[in-house]
Amino acid sequence: MYRARLGVLLGTRVLLLEHIGRRSGQARYAVVEAAERPEPGVYVVVSGFGTQAQWFQNVMADPNVRISVGWRYRRPARARRLGVAEARGVLERYALEHPRAWRTLKPIVEASADRDPNGPDPVVVEFRLV
How high is the pLDDT of residue 108? Predict the structure, then answer.
């Protein structure tokens, strides 16, 4: 849908993340949910698979990405992993604003944090359009 420029039909909560494979150097794609949009051009995403998610590892290796969301198509953005306090704040706000979705997401986030060799902290990434 994004490649056909129909991303607008999915709204601004779901986005297509285009990143570069850290080993292959090839373009890779992931459809992710924006847990929050704190300001125009900023999207905050929670990694349901913690640091083990391939998209997360690729984005940390090269934070220059492209995002398609709503009417925006392949817009350049820069990724930044949020600190622990910021990440927990995002999850708390998400739980309040989307209680039904949080009931599904919470066990996944908690399980991935417990399995994560880098610690039990939530993995949350901010993407800022440039």
Answer: 82
Whether the CB-CB separation of 73 and 5 falls below 8 Å is answered with yes
The answer to whether 81 and 123 are in contact (CB under 8 A) is: yes
CATH number of the domain located at residue range(s) 7-129 in this protein = 2.30.110.10
How far, in Å, CA of 59 to CA of 50, rounded? Answer: 13
Q: Find the mean pLDDT for residues 38-46.
A: 95
The count of other CB atoms within 10 Å of the CB of residue 126 is: 19
The sign of the torsion formed by the CA atoms of 101, 97, 58, 122 equals negative
- Cα 22 from Cα 29, distance rounded (Å): 13
**Which residues, 6+ apart, have CB-to-CB distance to 23 below 8 Å?**
none
